[in-house]
Structures are given as structure tokens and as C-alpha cells.
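As described in the Methods, two query proteins were run sequentially through the folding procedure within a single session, without resetting any intermediate state between them. The first query and its resulting C-alpha cells are shown here.
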Amino acid sequence: SALFEKELGSAPADSPEELTMIARRWMRRHYITADMGISGANFIVAYGDATGWKLARVTPAGLVLDATGVVVQIPAGRIHMAASGSGVLIAWITSDGFVYARRFAPDLTALDGGPINVAGTAGTRVAVTTAHFDGEFVVAWSQPLGPMIVTNSRR
């Protein structure tokens, strides 16, 4: 409470509920006046460990909508994610060089029965990225080709 009084100029408060509301009001005021923000949309957070990945939606006010996370059944390792109002796309490279992607609805329901093989065949792929462009998701990956690296993509 003393920290909030000093740093935020709030009235004295002791209960966790009061402190939470003070913090939310302060964050919301700064969010609304920020130079950049995503109005009316949730943020998607991906987090994982040795067992795999989970997704969670977080509101602009900081409220976590999926407290236990939504298991996305993607192997552990590096992923790249793009999100839009129409959903989420996650892409990754397997240890044998396949590029896969998986689509999710805005409520994080899986849209496909399983991963989509994007690159077709195994290979030496060094990076993958995703983007949402002109109403479609795009997956791009790089692979060494002699002395240069070639970037490929698929919509």
C-alpha cells in the first residue's frame, strides 16, 4: 500500500482486491493514452517447457482469460506466432527439418485436426517466421543453399 501511495498517488489500501483495482485503473489509464495499442483485442501469450506449449489470452487490462493455459500439442522447441482478430497461427521446425504450422480460432480452439506440413519435405532449415498480411497468414523459412541462405514462404 505504501508503494502504491508513493508511486501511483493512490489512497491507502490494504486488501489484495483494492490493490488490484488500483493497479488496473493505473494500467488502463496508461494503456488508453499510449502512443500504440491494440484496442478491443486480447493479447495471445505462448509459453512452454520441456513438455510442450500452451497459449493464453490476456485482456488489455491485464486479466488472464485462460488461467491454466490451452495446450496446443506442439513439440517443445522454438516457435513463431502471428495473431489477428481471426485467429492465431503457430509455426515451428522439427529436428529433421520439416516446417509445420497450426491454426487456432480467437478463443484458442484448434481449427485443424493436427499440424499442417508447410514445407513438404525434410531439409536443413534454420529459421521460421509467421505474419498476418492482407487477411491471410504467411509462413516463411530460411534454409542454407551453398554459400547463401534462401527464404521460402507459403500462404
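Immediately afterward, the second query was submitted; its sequence and C-alpha cells are:
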Amino acid sequence: TTTAAKRKLVIHASEWADISVDGVQVAHSQKLLPYELSPGPHAISFKSNGQKEQTIKIVVPAAGPIADVFADLEALPAEVVVNCNVKDATVIVPGRTGPSTAAETQQRPLVVQVPEGKAVVEIDAHKKGYKYASKNVTLTAGAHVSIDITLVPEQ
């Protein structure tokens, strides 16, 4: 039996990532990786902080053209728990989440998409009979954040 010659291809990631081929890490914190693979099926995995892990399955042909591999890594959402002195106060991240109560965020954090990797977002809390409160928080992709908001009774 003869072993087919390895084929050259280039692996691309949209973010700096650890790259694994068939379960073995072959690169640390790379965006571009020239690589040689034997013909047949392979799994190429990408792992990066704050990004969803991604695996791309390919079949390397024994002959003919071979396509490069491109991974567009997606940012993980941030999760926010709101600690408020009024447990049934409504909390929201305008334009990014639906309303929830502060108490509900203790069990199910607000899930905030941070596609740009980092963002300053406004978190609002309100309840009838209390002054509206707002707090700006810097969120990074994949972060788990707990914030405190105090509502003051209206006079």
C-alpha cells in the first residue's frame, strides 16, 4: 500500500484562536495557519476566549484543487445578574434584552450579545413608586457580571 502525499491548505480564523486538527492542538493564538493534511476526512477546531468554539469538518481530496478553511468565530454573549433592593423591579438592557425582574436574573441572568467583543451598556431598573435608576456597565464577550442597583422611593 502507498500512502497518499499530504496536501497543503491554509486555515483562517476571524479571531486569534487555538487551532486543533483531529483533536490535536497544532497552533496557539493564530489567525492564519499554513498546514499539510493527508487525504481524507478531518475535523478542524477553533477555540478563543470570549468566542463560541467552532469545529469545521472537511474532506481533503487526494488530487485536484483544495479549498482553504475559514472560521468566522462568533462572540459569546455576556450574562448579567442584577442585585436590586426591590426584587420585583423590572430590569432591562435597552435594545439588547427583553424585560425581566431583578429576582429572575438571579436564576436566569440577562443574556446580552456583545458582537464587538466589548461594549458599555446601560442597565435600567424601575418600579412604580420608585425613582428610575440606570447604571452603565462595561461588558466583554463571555463575561458573567453581577451589578448592584438601588431604587429610591419617590417622594
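The radius of gyration is 23 Å. We note this only descriptively and draw no conclusion about the first query from it.
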